[in-house]
Amino acid sequence: MKDLKYLAAYINPALAVIGLLLGGLYAWSTVLFSFFLIPILDQISPIDSSNHDVDTKETLINKRLFDWLLYLNIPIVYGVVGLFIYQINHVIMPTEVLLGQILSVGIVIGSCGINVAHELGHRKEKYHQLLGQILLIPALYMHFFIEHNRGHHRFVATDDDPASARKGEWLFTFWFRSVFGCFTKASKLEAIRLGKKQLPYFSRHNQFLQFMLIQSLYLVVVYSLSSSFGLAVIVLSAFVGVLLLETINYIEHYGLRRKLRDNGRYERVRPHHSWNANYTFGRIALYELTRHSDHHFIASKKFQVLDHHDEAPVLPYGYPAMILIALMPPFWFQLMDKRIPQN
Q1: Which has the closest alpha carbon to 278: 28, 63, 98, 49?
Q2: Residues 247, 323 contacting (CB under 8 angstroms)
Q3: What does the alpha-carbon distance between residue 290 and residue 248 come to, in Å, rounded to a whole number?
Q4: pTM to 2 decimal places
């Protein structure tokens, strides 16, 4: 039964569906659950910093249940987006209801789409990587697969990584730097890969251009199923999902830096180069994303066996609460700057 705790990750999309069907105040149920109820649950629930023993980890790694919990997010994400398109076409929504729907669908795209795509994208199997790429389409963020795996994990906690926030950097300026930096870096990384194979940039082998084409076709389909207004609303929902991802990026590495060695290379990525959070409910709802230190330490490690590291810096609150605080930079700096470890 303990394995089924990750079913809690489906609460957000379930609430989004309820909100889409019932409208009114229900349109805001996903937002309220994510950023009001989860922070409360995190604070009243016990903080679990325990790790599984070796035998238990081996058992958990081989359980297909955990893979299927990830796979189910594909029909969930596309189902929520499809329902949203249907409602846009057939229901006249007041502005406040439409805003709640956009935010709710965006949260689903971020948490069940990009977050799960991140997990699958690190798997060695090609079919897992393909499933991850499929989940990135509704976010219009397929280049994340390139930049995150080949760029972020290599340059994390350095000024060479646009997705690693610097001390004193405002979240809103970080959004611009990370979104545009990751997009351009993904293109450059693909150009480097093709160059090593002596292949031209503008060719069918360019994965970055493939992703841009797939996303363009996705938008054409959305437009054909709806209208220019429907297309704009779906794009806005994708944008919400992306900003959710980038805010989490901001939180995960804020102010942490790897040392540059005399040979011009950075020190190896260690657990103290990422912020951790062991708040129980937030961990479950995000498939253990909050144990981020171990993820960067061993990127291919499956979410169900990620470990806590005592040397990793710890966030004072869970991810949802920290996201809200990050939106208020003066409070964020006051809370976090004094907690940044001194190398």
Answers
A1: 49
A2: yes
A3: 9
A4: 0.95
